[in-house]
């Protein structure tokens, strides 16, 4: 069935049908399409646009179709042009002329805009709890390892002491922002487009507020042209997914590094690794690598949507059919990546002794040594910085660390040094002293981890 064939004198070329069809992509919106139509039919009856008894027949018929689709007794026809055509055709086959009244005061343009919003609202309702579950795991592991000293890095060089828990909490902060972005995007998506028609509204006395109420929208669109051509919500959700994938990719990059023999900071559970077909010793972090790799796919989805939209005149254009495949893929991919990542983080083993050894061997307490000269001996910071740099060079020359370097070597460079320097550069004390808000002191980490867990509990 073609909803538009009255104008045409001949059937379209089969290749045109295949190229034009979107059923393979939009069939997943069957539930949302039907529920949107139920609300539309109810409003038409309440407004007297169609007879109340016909409105009731339409609603019952649509719900019967939904039950049949979801039970598997009614397969979706892959040759249908789109899900809207399929549902309306099936409804008409069952109800006759009554089924033909469903599309009164409606276009596929405002219908598909509605379906996409309803579907993406449901997807976000599944995705955000997944993100919260990931944050919860990270916060719990942070609490567990709040005092596990490790080197913090800049430029991939050991820089200053932090803790493993503090490091994990950095990802909690990123992901909490991601959750907030998804929630904000949902607020902007919470607008009913139905009633905009093809582009110029309709002369029927619609009650759009009633339709919005039935479908759970807080407001209705204020401009019919914008309502049918707006795909900001697709682009915004794709961006949210892309930025979240950026954060997951960064985390997975660190997991890959940390479980290498060069670091050995963690060990991933066997269930989340694979082996080699030729090298029997290998234990490869393939899942983390795949998540890192799939970020590029989601970035491509975002660029596809933006590029598709950038040159479109108002109002609806067929180009917009490309929106759904891209945003669906972006959100599908993000959900797919979260599924193994959560248990992978739950089950990984933290090798605290390796973390501590790396912290001890990289002069990451050099800043604390300089601060000792400033705070305890009154040395200007720039002079203290130079002296400490010379001390590090001397340690490297002698094969020592700042902790093992004899006091005589310290005093040869600056006679103000005394035994107190060893206490000042103790790694545990270095970390514990960083008590300012946001710092890595273990008590800070515990407090922040509990704060994150409390926020998640409150938002559940």
Tally of structural domains: 3
How helical, in percent, are the residues? 55-70%
User: So what's the oligomer here?
Assistant: single chain
* CATH class membership of the largest domain: Mainly Alpha
CATH topology of the largest domain, what is it called? Fumarase C, Chain A, domain 2
- Rounded to an integer, what's the Rg over CA atoms? 31 Å
Count all strands and give the number: 6
CATH homology-level superfamily of the largest domain: Fumarase/aspartase (Central domain)
Q: Roughly how many Å apart are the termini?
A: 45 Å
- Spans of at least 5 consecutive residues whose pLDDT stays below 50 are none
Proportion of residues in extended strands: under 5%
Q: What would you note in describing this structure?
A:
There is one protein chain. Helix 11 packs antiparallel against helix 12 (286-309). This protein has helices at residues 14-20, 23-26, 30-46, 52-71, 83-95, 97-100, 108-144, 164-189, 208-215, 224-229, 232-258, 286-309, 322-347, 352-360, 366-377, 381-398, 407-413, 420-424, 427-432, 442-459; strands at 149-154, 157-163, 191-192, 219-220, 266-267, 349-350. The protein has 20 helices and six strands. It is 64% helix and 5% strand. The strands form three sheets. It has a two-stranded antiparallel sheet. It has a two-stranded parallel sheet with strand order 3-4. A two-stranded antiparallel sheet has the order 5-6. The model has no long low-confidence stretch (mean pLDDT 95). Helix 9 (208-215) links the parallel strand 3 and strand 4 (219-220). The chain is mainly α and 460 residues long. The longest helix is centred in the N-terminal third of the chain and has 37 residues, at 108-144. It starts with 13 loop residues before the first helix and ends with a helix. The chain has three domains: 5-104, Fumarase/aspartase (N-terminal domain) (Fumarase C, Chain B, domain 1, Orthogonal Bundle); 109-357, Fumarase/aspartase (Central domain) (Fumarase C, Chain A, domain 2, Up-down Bundle), CATH 1.20.200.10; 360-459, Ribonucleotide Reductase Protein R1, domain 1 (Orthogonal Bundle), CATH 1.10.40.30.
């Amino acid at each position: 069935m073609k909803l538009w064939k009255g104008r045409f004198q001949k059937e379209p070329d089969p290749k045109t049908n295949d190229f034009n069809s979107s059923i393979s992509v939009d069939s997943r919106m069957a539930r949302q399409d039907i529920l949107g139509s139920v609300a539309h039919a109810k409003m038409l009856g309440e407004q007297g646009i169609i007879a109340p008894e016909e409105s009731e027949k339409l609603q019952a018929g649509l719900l019967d179709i939904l039950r049949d689709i979801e039970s598997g007794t009614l397969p979706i026809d892959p040759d249908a042009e789109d899900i809207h055509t399929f549902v309306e055709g099936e409804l008409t086959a069952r109800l006759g002329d009554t089924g033909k009244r469903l599309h009164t005061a409606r276009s596929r343009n405002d219908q598909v805009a509605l379906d996409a919003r309803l579907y993406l609202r449901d997807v976000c309702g599944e995705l955000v709890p997944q993100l919260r579950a990931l944050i919860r795991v990270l916060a719990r592991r942070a609490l567990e390892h709040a005092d596990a000293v490790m080197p913090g890095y800049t430029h991939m060089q050991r820089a200053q002491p932090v803790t493993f828990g503090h490091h994990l909490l950095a990802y909690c902060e990123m992901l909490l922002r991601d959750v907030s972005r998804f929630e904000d995007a949902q607020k902007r998506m919470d607008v009913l487009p139905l009633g905009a028609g093809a582009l110029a509204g309709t002369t029927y006395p619609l009650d759009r507020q009633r339709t919005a109420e039935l479908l759970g929208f807080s407001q209705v669109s204020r401009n019919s042209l914008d309502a049918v051509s707006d795909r900001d919500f697709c682009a915004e959700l794709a961006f949210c997914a892309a930025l979240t994938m950026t954060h997951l990719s960064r985390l997975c990059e660190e997991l890959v590094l940390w479980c290498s023999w060069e670091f050995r900071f963690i060990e991933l559970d066997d269930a989340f690794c694979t082996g080699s077909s030729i090298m029997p010793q290998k234990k490869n972090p393939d899942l983390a690598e795949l998540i890192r790799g799939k970020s590029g796919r989601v970035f491509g989805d975002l660029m596809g949507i933006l590029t598709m939209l950038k040159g479109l005149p108002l109002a609806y254009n067929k180009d917009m059919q490309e929106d759904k495949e891209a945003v669906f893929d972006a959100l599908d991919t993000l959900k797919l990546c979260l599924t193994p990542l959560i248990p992978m983080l739950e089950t990984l083993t933290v090798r605290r002794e390796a973390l501590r050894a790396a912290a001890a061997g990289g002069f990451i307490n050099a800043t604390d040594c300089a601060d000792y000269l400033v705070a305890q001996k009154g040395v200007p910071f720039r002079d203290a910085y130079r002296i400490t740099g010379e001390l590090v060079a001397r340690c490297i020359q002698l094969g020592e660390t700042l902790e093992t370097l004899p006091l005589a070597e310290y005093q040869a460079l600056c006679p103000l040094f005394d035994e107190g320097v060893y206490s000042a550069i103790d790694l545990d004390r270095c970390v514990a002293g960083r008590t300012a808000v946001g710092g890595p002191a273990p008590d800070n980490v515990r407090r922040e981890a509990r704060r994150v867990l409390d926020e998640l509990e409150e938002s559940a």
